Amino acid sequence: MRLDKFMKVTQLIKRRTVANEAATEGTISVDGRKVKASYNVKVGDKILLDFWNFSKELEVLDIPKSNSIKKDSLDDYIKLLDYKSKSVHDM
What are phi and psi of 26, to 5 degrees? Predict the structure, then answer.
């Protein structure tokens, strides 16, 4: 599954176009390297979302088979490894 679609389906980013833009801007990296929105997500990938107000590192546990998943089953697909909130003083 493409990275931008994975972000939308797992509800990490609300819209696929926003996920596409984030990947283009370089705020999403997989296993330590910047990737395009067309990157094919695999089980075991470590995804880092580095936005202006937070940084979140996740591990891919499974790839969704459908275009939507229930919120209570998100833990079956992603595992939160690290979360850091950023303040204005961190910039």
Answer: 90, 15
Q: Is the pTM of this model over 0.90?
A: no
Amino acid at 61: L
Q: Which of 24, 58, 17, 55 has its CA nearest to residue 39?
A: 24
Tell me which H or E stretch contains 35: none
CB 30 within 8 A of CB 47: yes
Residue 2: how many CB atoms within 10 A of its CB? 18
Give the chain's domains with CATH numbers.
3-90 (3.10.290.10)
User: What is the tens place of the pLDDT at every residue in 28-86?
Assistant: 999 999 999 999 999 999 999 999 899 999 999 999 998 888 888 999 999 999 999 98
